[in-house]
Amino acid sequence: MVLKTFGWSFAITALGLVAAVFYGGWQAFGIVAILSVLEISLSFDNAVVNAGILKKMNAFWQKIFLTVGVLIAVFGMRLVFPVVIVAISAKIGPIEAVDLALSDKEMYEQLVTDAHPSIAAFGGMFLLMIFLDFIFEDRDVKWLAWLERPLAKLGKVDMLSACIALIVLVVASMTVGAHAHQHGGVHVDKAQTILVSGVLGLITYMIVGGLSGYFENKLEEEEEAEHEAEEEAKKSGKPVTAVAMAGKAAFFMFLYLEVLDASFSFDGVIGAFAITNDIVLMALGLGIGAMYVRSLTVYLVRQGTLDDYVYLEHGAHYAIGALAIILLVTIQYEINEIITGLVGVLLIGWSFWSSVRRNKRLELEGSTAEA
Protein backbone atom coordinates (compact mmCIF):
# COMPACT_ATOMS: atom_id res chain seq x y z
CA MET A 1 0.00 0.00 0.00
CA VAL A 2 2.76 2.48 0.99
CA LEU A 3 4.89 1.64 -2.07
CA LYS A 4 1.87 1.82 -4.37
CA THR A 5 0.90 5.28 -3.07
CA PHE A 6 4.39 6.75 -2.54
CA GLY A 7 6.18 4.91 -5.39
CA TRP A 8 6.21 7.94 -7.71
CA SER A 9 7.40 10.18 -4.87
CA PHE A 10 10.35 7.85 -4.12
CA ALA A 11 11.24 7.73 -7.84
CA ILE A 12 11.06 11.53 -8.25
CA THR A 13 13.15 11.99 -5.07
CA ALA A 14 15.91 9.74 -6.45
CA LEU A 15 15.87 11.47 -9.87
CA GLY A 16 15.77 14.94 -8.31
CA LEU A 17 18.70 14.30 -5.97
CA VAL A 18 20.79 12.72 -8.74
CA ALA A 19 20.01 15.71 -11.01
CA ALA A 20 21.07 18.06 -8.18
CA VAL A 21 24.46 16.31 -7.85
CA PHE A 22 25.06 16.57 -11.62
CA TYR A 23 23.93 20.21 -11.61
CA GLY A 24 25.89 21.56 -8.64
CA GLY A 25 27.64 18.77 -6.75
CA TRP A 26 27.00 17.67 -3.16
CA GLN A 27 26.22 21.19 -1.97
CA ALA A 28 23.31 21.29 -4.43
CA PHE A 29 22.26 17.82 -3.17
CA GLY A 30 22.06 19.21 0.39
CA ILE A 31 20.07 22.30 -0.66
CA VAL A 32 17.53 20.20 -2.61
CA ALA A 33 17.12 17.81 0.36
CA ILE A 34 16.51 20.75 2.77
CA LEU A 35 14.00 22.35 0.36
CA SER A 36 12.11 19.05 0.06
CA VAL A 37 11.76 18.78 3.86
CA LEU A 38 10.74 22.47 4.06
CA GLU A 39 7.98 21.98 1.47
CA ILE A 40 6.63 18.82 3.18
CA SER A 41 6.58 20.43 6.64
CA LEU A 42 4.91 23.62 5.34
CA SER A 43 2.34 21.68 3.29
CA PHE A 44 1.22 18.86 5.62
CA ASP A 45 -1.96 20.81 6.40
CA ASN A 46 -2.48 21.11 2.63
CA ALA A 47 -2.52 17.30 2.33
CA VAL A 48 -5.14 16.94 5.10
CA VAL A 49 -7.47 19.54 3.56
CA ASN A 50 -6.93 18.12 0.06
CA ALA A 51 -7.85 14.67 1.37
CA GLY A 52 -11.14 16.01 2.71
CA ILE A 53 -12.05 17.16 -0.82
CA LEU A 54 -10.44 14.29 -2.73
CA LYS A 55 -12.35 11.58 -0.83
CA LYS A 56 -15.53 12.88 -2.54
CA MET A 57 -14.00 12.10 -5.97
CA ASN A 58 -13.88 8.76 -7.76
CA ALA A 59 -10.69 6.79 -8.57
CA PHE A 60 -10.36 8.41 -12.04
CA TRP A 61 -10.23 11.96 -10.64
CA GLN A 62 -7.90 10.87 -7.85
CA LYS A 63 -5.55 9.62 -10.58
CA ILE A 64 -5.89 12.92 -12.50
CA PHE A 65 -5.00 14.77 -9.29
CA LEU A 66 -1.84 12.66 -8.95
CA THR A 67 -0.75 13.04 -12.59
CA VAL A 68 -2.00 16.22 -14.29
CA GLY A 69 -2.30 17.93 -10.89
CA VAL A 70 1.34 17.17 -10.10
CA LEU A 71 2.47 18.69 -13.41
CA ILE A 72 0.55 21.87 -12.56
CA ALA A 73 1.85 21.88 -8.96
CA VAL A 74 5.50 21.13 -9.75
CA PHE A 75 6.04 22.94 -13.04
CA GLY A 76 3.33 25.58 -12.70
CA MET A 77 3.72 26.72 -9.11
CA ARG A 78 7.29 25.72 -8.25
CA LEU A 79 9.06 26.60 -11.51
CA VAL A 80 6.90 28.94 -13.63
CA PHE A 81 5.34 30.90 -10.74
CA PRO A 82 8.60 32.48 -9.40
CA VAL A 83 9.51 33.49 -12.98
CA VAL A 84 6.04 35.01 -13.59
CA ILE A 85 6.36 37.00 -10.33
CA VAL A 86 9.59 38.54 -11.58
CA ALA A 87 8.22 39.15 -15.09
CA ILE A 88 5.19 41.05 -13.71
CA SER A 89 6.99 42.99 -10.95
CA ALA A 90 9.98 43.99 -13.13
CA LYS A 91 7.74 44.56 -16.21
CA ILE A 92 9.90 42.29 -18.37
CA GLY A 93 9.11 39.32 -20.63
CA PRO A 94 9.06 35.71 -19.29
CA ILE A 95 12.15 34.75 -21.35
CA GLU A 96 14.07 37.74 -19.96
CA ALA A 97 12.93 36.72 -16.45
CA VAL A 98 14.31 33.17 -16.95
CA ASP A 99 17.57 34.64 -18.25
CA LEU A 100 17.73 36.94 -15.21
CA ALA A 101 17.03 34.00 -12.84
CA LEU A 102 19.91 32.02 -14.34
CA SER A 103 22.42 34.83 -14.90
CA ASP A 104 21.80 37.39 -12.11
CA LYS A 105 20.44 35.49 -9.12
CA GLU A 106 20.81 38.36 -6.63
CA MET A 107 18.76 40.73 -8.81
CA TYR A 108 16.17 37.98 -9.37
CA GLU A 109 15.81 37.39 -5.62
CA GLN A 110 15.42 41.13 -5.01
CA LEU A 111 12.59 41.34 -7.56
CA VAL A 112 10.78 38.38 -5.95
CA THR A 113 11.17 40.00 -2.52
CA ASP A 114 9.68 43.23 -3.91
CA ALA A 115 6.70 41.27 -5.24
CA HIS A 116 6.13 39.53 -1.87
CA PRO A 117 3.44 41.94 -0.50
CA SER A 118 1.07 41.27 -3.41
CA ILE A 119 1.67 37.48 -3.26
CA ALA A 120 1.14 37.43 0.52
CA ALA A 121 -2.05 39.51 0.25
CA PHE A 122 -3.53 37.27 -2.47
CA GLY A 123 -2.58 33.96 -0.81
CA GLY A 124 -3.39 35.21 2.69
CA MET A 125 -6.92 36.27 1.75
CA PHE A 126 -7.64 33.03 -0.12
CA LEU A 127 -6.50 30.90 2.83
CA LEU A 128 -8.23 33.16 5.38
CA MET A 129 -11.56 32.65 3.59
CA ILE A 130 -11.11 28.85 3.73
CA PHE A 131 -10.47 29.05 7.48
CA LEU A 132 -13.36 31.45 8.22
CA ASP A 133 -15.88 29.44 6.19
CA PHE A 134 -14.81 26.32 8.11
CA ILE A 135 -15.07 27.77 11.65
CA PHE A 136 -18.40 29.53 11.01
CA GLU A 137 -20.06 26.32 9.82
CA ASP A 138 -22.09 24.31 12.34
CA ARG A 139 -20.63 20.78 12.45
CA ASP A 140 -21.66 17.59 14.21
CA VAL A 141 -18.06 16.94 15.28
CA LYS A 142 -16.49 19.77 17.29
CA TRP A 143 -12.83 19.76 18.35
CA LEU A 144 -12.51 22.94 20.49
CA ALA A 145 -16.21 23.01 21.40
CA TRP A 146 -15.88 26.06 23.74
CA LEU A 147 -14.73 28.10 20.71
CA GLU A 148 -16.55 26.37 17.84
CA ARG A 149 -20.08 26.49 19.33
CA PRO A 150 -20.30 30.31 19.61
CA LEU A 151 -18.56 30.73 16.23
CA ALA A 152 -21.10 28.38 14.57
CA LYS A 153 -23.90 30.58 15.98
CA LEU A 154 -22.19 33.69 14.61
CA GLY A 155 -21.85 31.91 11.25
CA LYS A 156 -25.61 32.16 10.74
CA VAL A 157 -25.03 35.83 9.81
CA ASP A 158 -24.82 36.02 5.99
CA MET A 159 -21.51 37.04 4.37
CA LEU A 160 -19.73 37.24 7.75
CA SER A 161 -16.57 35.50 6.45
CA ALA A 162 -16.18 37.96 3.57
CA CYS A 163 -16.78 40.98 5.87
CA ILE A 164 -14.14 39.85 8.39
CA ALA A 165 -11.65 39.02 5.61
CA LEU A 166 -12.10 42.48 4.05
CA ILE A 167 -11.68 44.19 7.44
CA VAL A 168 -8.41 42.23 7.95
CA LEU A 169 -7.25 43.27 4.46
CA VAL A 170 -8.03 46.97 5.05
CA VAL A 171 -6.18 46.86 8.40
CA ALA A 172 -3.18 45.14 6.73
CA SER A 173 -2.97 47.77 3.97
CA MET A 174 -3.44 50.69 6.40
CA THR A 175 -0.74 49.29 8.71
CA VAL A 176 1.70 49.16 5.79
CA GLY A 177 0.76 52.72 4.83
CA ALA A 178 1.16 54.03 8.40
CA HIS A 179 4.50 52.23 8.83
CA ALA A 180 5.86 53.66 5.57
CA HIS A 181 4.60 57.14 6.47
CA GLN A 182 6.39 57.08 9.86
CA HIS A 183 9.63 56.20 8.09
CA GLY A 184 9.13 58.77 5.35
CA GLY A 185 8.51 56.13 2.66
CA VAL A 186 6.21 56.19 -0.37
CA HIS A 187 3.35 54.03 0.81
CA VAL A 188 0.29 54.73 -1.38
CA ASP A 189 1.31 52.34 -4.18
CA LYS A 190 2.19 49.53 -1.77
CA ALA A 191 -1.05 49.87 0.21
CA GLN A 192 -3.03 49.97 -3.05
CA THR A 193 -1.18 46.88 -4.37
CA ILE A 194 -2.02 44.97 -1.18
CA LEU A 195 -5.71 45.98 -1.38
CA VAL A 196 -6.03 44.99 -5.07
CA SER A 197 -4.14 41.68 -4.60
CA GLY A 198 -6.18 40.81 -1.50
CA VAL A 199 -9.49 41.55 -3.24
CA LEU A 200 -8.37 39.38 -6.19
CA GLY A 201 -7.62 36.57 -3.71
CA LEU A 202 -11.12 36.96 -2.26
CA ILE A 203 -12.74 36.98 -5.74
CA THR A 204 -10.76 33.88 -6.77
CA TYR A 205 -11.94 32.05 -3.65
CA MET A 206 -15.56 33.03 -4.23
CA ILE A 207 -15.56 32.02 -7.91
CA VAL A 208 -13.74 28.69 -7.57
CA GLY A 209 -15.25 27.78 -4.17
CA GLY A 210 -18.71 28.82 -5.32
CA LEU A 211 -18.53 26.78 -8.53
CA SER A 212 -17.14 23.69 -6.77
CA GLY A 213 -19.84 23.98 -4.05
CA TYR A 214 -22.57 24.38 -6.68
CA PHE A 215 -21.46 21.33 -8.63
CA GLU A 216 -20.92 19.32 -5.45
CA ASN A 217 -24.59 19.95 -4.55
CA LYS A 218 -25.61 19.06 -8.11
CA LEU A 219 -23.59 15.85 -7.84
CA GLU A 220 -25.40 14.90 -4.61
CA GLU A 221 -28.77 15.58 -6.25
CA GLU A 222 -27.81 13.53 -9.30
CA GLU A 223 -26.57 10.68 -7.12
CA GLU A 224 -29.91 10.62 -5.30
CA ALA A 225 -31.77 10.66 -8.64
CA GLU A 226 -29.48 7.91 -9.95
CA HIS A 227 -30.11 5.80 -6.87
CA GLU A 228 -33.89 6.22 -7.29
CA ALA A 229 -33.59 5.36 -11.01
CA GLU A 230 -31.60 2.23 -10.15
CA GLU A 231 -34.29 1.15 -7.70
CA GLU A 232 -36.94 1.70 -10.40
CA ALA A 233 -34.82 -0.16 -12.96
CA LYS A 234 -34.43 -3.14 -10.63
CA LYS A 235 -38.20 -3.34 -10.33
CA SER A 236 -38.85 -2.99 -14.09
CA GLY A 237 -35.66 -4.72 -15.36
CA LYS A 238 -34.49 -1.72 -17.52
CA PRO A 239 -30.80 -0.63 -17.90
CA VAL A 240 -29.70 2.63 -16.18
CA THR A 241 -27.63 5.32 -17.99
CA ALA A 242 -24.58 6.88 -16.29
CA VAL A 243 -24.81 10.44 -15.01
CA ALA A 244 -22.53 12.95 -16.78
CA MET A 245 -22.78 15.53 -13.98
CA ALA A 246 -20.25 13.63 -11.86
CA GLY A 247 -17.48 14.57 -14.35
CA LYS A 248 -18.39 18.27 -14.32
CA ALA A 249 -18.67 18.36 -10.52
CA ALA A 250 -15.35 16.56 -10.10
CA PHE A 251 -13.69 18.92 -12.60
CA PHE A 252 -14.63 22.00 -10.56
CA MET A 253 -13.57 20.31 -7.34
CA PHE A 254 -10.25 19.49 -9.08
CA LEU A 255 -9.95 23.16 -10.12
CA TYR A 256 -10.62 24.22 -6.51
CA LEU A 257 -7.90 21.80 -5.32
CA GLU A 258 -5.39 23.30 -7.76
CA VAL A 259 -6.09 26.90 -6.64
CA LEU A 260 -5.90 25.71 -3.02
CA ASP A 261 -2.54 24.04 -3.70
CA ALA A 262 -1.32 27.20 -5.42
CA SER A 263 -2.21 29.29 -2.34
CA PHE A 264 -0.48 26.81 -0.04
CA SER A 265 2.65 26.88 -2.17
CA PHE A 266 3.10 30.66 -1.84
CA ASP A 267 4.83 30.30 1.53
CA GLY A 268 6.97 27.41 0.24
CA VAL A 269 8.16 29.37 -2.81
CA ILE A 270 8.86 32.51 -0.77
CA GLY A 271 10.48 30.46 2.02
CA ALA A 272 12.73 28.74 -0.52
CA PHE A 273 14.44 32.06 -1.28
CA ALA A 274 15.75 32.08 2.30
CA ILE A 275 17.73 28.94 1.40
CA THR A 276 18.67 29.48 -2.26
CA ASN A 277 17.98 31.86 -5.14
CA ASP A 278 18.83 29.27 -7.79
CA ILE A 279 15.56 28.45 -9.60
CA VAL A 280 16.82 25.04 -10.78
CA LEU A 281 17.52 23.86 -7.21
CA MET A 282 14.29 25.49 -6.06
CA ALA A 283 12.23 23.65 -8.66
CA LEU A 284 13.92 20.32 -7.81
CA GLY A 285 13.51 20.66 -4.03
CA LEU A 286 9.98 22.06 -4.00
CA GLY A 287 8.94 19.63 -6.75
CA ILE A 288 10.03 16.62 -4.66
CA GLY A 289 8.17 18.05 -1.65
CA ALA A 290 5.04 18.64 -3.76
CA MET A 291 5.06 14.98 -4.85
CA TYR A 292 5.04 13.79 -1.23
CA VAL A 293 2.17 16.13 -0.38
CA ARG A 294 0.22 14.66 -3.32
CA SER A 295 0.98 11.06 -2.29
CA LEU A 296 0.16 11.79 1.36
CA THR A 297 -3.22 13.22 0.29
CA VAL A 298 -4.12 10.02 -1.59
CA TYR A 299 -2.81 7.86 1.28
CA LEU A 300 -5.07 9.68 3.78
CA VAL A 301 -8.06 9.13 1.47
CA ARG A 302 -7.41 5.43 0.80
CA GLN A 303 -6.65 4.59 4.43
CA GLY A 304 -9.76 6.42 5.62
CA THR A 305 -7.56 8.30 8.09
CA LEU A 306 -9.87 11.33 8.19
CA ASP A 307 -12.77 9.08 9.23
CA ASP A 308 -10.70 7.43 11.98
CA TYR A 309 -9.10 10.62 13.29
CA VAL A 310 -12.02 13.05 13.15
CA TYR A 311 -10.21 16.15 14.46
CA LEU A 312 -7.45 16.08 11.81
CA GLU A 313 -9.47 18.22 9.42
CA HIS A 314 -10.10 20.75 12.22
CA GLY A 315 -6.36 20.91 13.00
CA ALA A 316 -5.54 21.44 9.32
CA HIS A 317 -8.03 24.30 9.02
CA TYR A 318 -6.69 25.99 12.15
CA ALA A 319 -3.22 25.63 10.59
CA ILE A 320 -4.60 27.29 7.43
CA GLY A 321 -5.90 30.17 9.56
CA ALA A 322 -2.48 30.53 11.21
CA LEU A 323 -0.75 30.42 7.81
CA ALA A 324 -3.12 33.08 6.42
CA ILE A 325 -2.34 35.42 9.33
CA ILE A 326 1.41 34.69 9.03
CA LEU A 327 1.31 35.50 5.28
CA LEU A 328 -0.48 38.80 5.95
CA VAL A 329 1.98 39.67 8.76
CA THR A 330 4.94 38.98 6.43
CA ILE A 331 3.77 41.86 4.23
CA GLN A 332 5.32 44.11 6.88
CA TYR A 333 7.50 41.90 9.10
CA GLU A 334 9.83 38.99 8.47
CA ILE A 335 8.87 35.63 10.00
CA ASN A 336 11.23 32.66 9.93
CA GLU A 337 10.01 29.75 7.75
CA ILE A 338 10.77 27.30 10.58
CA ILE A 339 8.12 29.04 12.72
CA THR A 340 5.62 28.90 9.81
CA GLY A 341 6.21 25.17 9.36
CA LEU A 342 6.17 24.38 13.09
CA VAL A 343 2.83 26.15 13.73
CA GLY A 344 1.09 23.92 11.16
CA VAL A 345 2.78 20.73 12.37
CA LEU A 346 1.96 21.48 16.06
CA LEU A 347 -1.73 22.21 15.35
CA ILE A 348 -2.15 19.05 13.27
CA GLY A 349 -0.19 17.01 15.84
CA TRP A 350 -2.48 18.32 18.60
CA SER A 351 -5.62 17.47 16.59
CA PHE A 352 -4.26 13.96 15.89
CA TRP A 353 -3.52 13.41 19.60
CA SER A 354 -7.05 14.66 20.47
CA SER A 355 -8.50 12.21 17.92
CA VAL A 356 -6.55 9.29 19.43
CA ARG A 357 -7.79 10.21 22.94
CA ARG A 358 -11.39 10.45 21.64
CA ASN A 359 -11.14 7.02 19.98
CA LYS A 360 -9.77 5.46 23.21
CA ARG A 361 -12.55 7.09 25.25
CA LEU A 362 -15.26 5.80 22.87
CA GLU A 363 -13.67 2.33 22.91
CA LEU A 364 -13.66 2.36 26.73
CA GLU A 365 -17.26 3.55 26.88
CA GLY A 366 -18.25 0.81 24.38
CA SER A 367 -16.54 -1.95 26.39
CA THR A 368 -18.09 -0.61 29.65
CA ALA A 369 -21.56 -0.62 28.06
CA GLU A 370 -21.07 -4.23 26.86
CA ALA A 371 -19.97 -5.31 30.35
TrEMBL record:
The organism's place on the tree of life at top rank: Bacteria
Classification via Pfam families: DUF475
Membrane-crossing residue ranges in chain numbering: 7-26, 32-53, 65-90, 115-136, 157-181, 193-215, 236-257, 269-293, 314-332, 338-356
Keywords: Membrane, Transmembrane, Transmembrane helix
Keyword Transmembrane helix among UniProt keywords: yes
InterPro entries: DUF475
Protein name: DUF475 domain-containing protein
Organism of provenance: Streptomyces spororaveus
